[in-house]
Amino acid sequence: VVLVVVLDLDRLVLLFRRAALAGVGAGANLQIWRDLETAIGLPPLERHLPLLGRKAKALLLAMSLVPEGRSPVSIVVTREATLEGAESQLPEALACVLSCYFESSSGTKIVKGRMVEGGEGHGPRKEFFVSASADATGRFGPARTLAMPGEPGAASLRAAVAGNRLTLSADSAGGDAAAAEAAFASEFAKVEARDRVMLHCHGGVEVAGVVSAKMGANVLVLSQPVKSDPTLSVIGWEVQKPATPLFEFHRGTGQYWFGAHADDLDGPYGEKLRARYKTLGKMIALAITNHCKLSFVLPAMFFKVLLRRKTSFMLEDLRGFDNSLHASMKACLKMRQAQFASLLEVEGLPESMTKEEYVGAQVSATFCPKAMHAVREGFEAMLPPREATDITANELRHMVCPTEVHGGSINIRHIFDVVIEDEMAESAPFVEAFWHVIDNLSAEEKKRFLVFVTGLETPPEPGSEQLLIQLPFSAFTKDEHVAMLNMLPQAHTCTNTLEMPNYYEALLESGRFAEEGPALNAELRRLIGDKLRLAIRETGGYELDGFLGGG
After folding, report:
1. How big, in percent rounded to 5, are the helix, strand and coil portions of the chain?
2. Does residue 508 contact residue 527 with C-beta atoms inside 8 Å?
3. What is the pTM of this model?
């Protein structure tokens, strides 16, 4: 009987999800929910989270964490340094809903004194979390354009490719050769070992690689061989300096774990790293209140430690997490004393330390480095421990990480709660043709479709978001219907809205088909397929919304 009650309560809460997501920035969701509880005689479920499943818990937690009446917090960042930009703009305490904007010199409006892209709402909010995730796991900083030694857009740089060597030379193209060489030498000096260089060449050829070494005044030795023509005409080049990733891919779990510098948080450089980890901790909690996710997956152990559900560690905890380290620590326990003493000396540890103490310290440092404390500081500032008592580590992991496994197939119908406008829903041939096209998109095309309608290529958790399909365009005369056949679908990523021209009616009213039937249906499929593929391939971005006045 208890199980039935829990499932029914769970379904009841999830019925409210659509309204909650639509009003995520309104600040009144919790009061509306409480009014509903009172009206139908429910107990305050937000205080009885153990009765609910993970998705319902996430919904109520998102509402209860934001103080009543708190307005969304506006933040303006760049895609190249999202975490750093967000650090000073996120609140110091108490969770909130974010209004996210991306700085752009060609933006359509000004927020906080900075020119930003035109979109607003849930689309930019989701992209903010994805961009911050890329910042947290990226091995290189923002790309910096290097000056070319000749006229802009001209092939004023030549690259000779031989295996993993790039030999660069200035091409004065009949101009001042000495000035071109001097300009090239100045920019070449800015490239260092461990940098990532990118050459943009004629014919759309791109060459990129990490610099292992520099030889002489014009040779770059890359870490991997380059597959390209032996001689390239370069029209632009960029360099990215190495960055310190907060999290790196962890082979033991196949997910992400703390980077190599997670214990290097002391000193002037460590303070900056500590601040980035703290900001990331805030974002883990804010992912809940903003109905968003990070774009990388952390293992369950991370959340057990974050929530203080696991505070002590043993050697056996490494088994299955990092089998290589586990074997190494077991071997350490079997070391001869003289060999172990040498190890302590090399690592600068007290000679009185025992093997068991050494192994225990290594295991603890693996699972709870200094960076974990910085992450937890930011996380608990947004989500106090008393508010997290009723959620498990695994539930939190699913709330904030993209744990859904889609494999090579993305089922658009399964992922979204699809809402089709009545005018289209009443036209069975139109609906059938539309889904025929969607279902037969390739895996890459489905990713582009997701980017087109949501702003992200990562699918949302199934059932957590709507996909609205509307027919907003009108045509009355034959000429207008003919013109509609040339229109492309449009999208508003802020609301996951796909706007389709009424191709079905246009085919009939344009006179191309006298009646309904197989021939019209076949042409409808072809037309929708061609126009939708062109739209998802060639268009996108928030500026379209800005110009159209949509969100």
Report:
1. 45, 15, 40
2. no
3. 0.79
d(CA 56, CA 46): 10
pLDDT (0 to 100) of residue 161: 92
Beta bridge partners of 490: 499
Sheet (strand 465-470) strand order: 416-420, 465-470, 497-499, 490-492
Average pLDDT, rounded, for the chain = 88
Q: Where are the beta strands (DSSP E) in 385-526?
A: 416-420, 465-470, 490-492, 497-499
Question: 22 is written with which tokens?
Answer: 């639509």
Amino acid at 160: A
List the structure tokens of 76.
Answer: 């303006």
Distances (CA, A) of 539 to 35, 119, 123, 406, 455: 43, 15, 16, 25, 11
Distance CA 97, CA 101 (A): 13
3-state DSSP of 115-148 = EECCCCCHHHHHHHHHHHHHHHHCCECCCEEECC
Return the ∠ at Cα 83 (arms to 140 and 131), rounded to 5°.
70
**Distance, CA of 177 to CA of 138 (rounded, Å):** 39
Residue 409, exposed/middle/buried by CB under 10 A (0-12, 13-18, 19+)? exposed
- Residue 30 one-letter amino acid: L
Q: How many helices (H) and strands (E) does the chain have?
A: 22, 17
Q: What is the mean pLDDT of residues 294-316?
A: 96
424-462 per-position pLDDT tens digit: 999 999 999 999 999 999 988 998 999 899 887 778 777
Give the C-alpha separation, 199 to 217, whole Å: 17
Show Cβ contacts of residue 218 under 8 Å, excluding neighbours closer than 6 positions: 167, 168, 169, 184, 188
For residues 159 and 208, the answer to whether their CB atoms sit within 8 Å is: no
Q: What angle do CA 91, 95, 100 make, to 5 degrees?
A: 65
What 21-28 contacts at long range (C-beta under 8 Å, 24+ apart), as own/partner pairs, is 21/122, 21/291, 21/464, 21/465, 21/466, 24/97, 24/122, 24/290, 24/291, 25/72, 25/97, 25/99, 25/121, 27/66, 27/68, 27/69, 27/70, 27/71, 27/72, 27/97
At 389 the three-state DSSP class reads: coil
Rounded distance between C-alpha atoms, residue 501 and residue 210, angstroms:
47
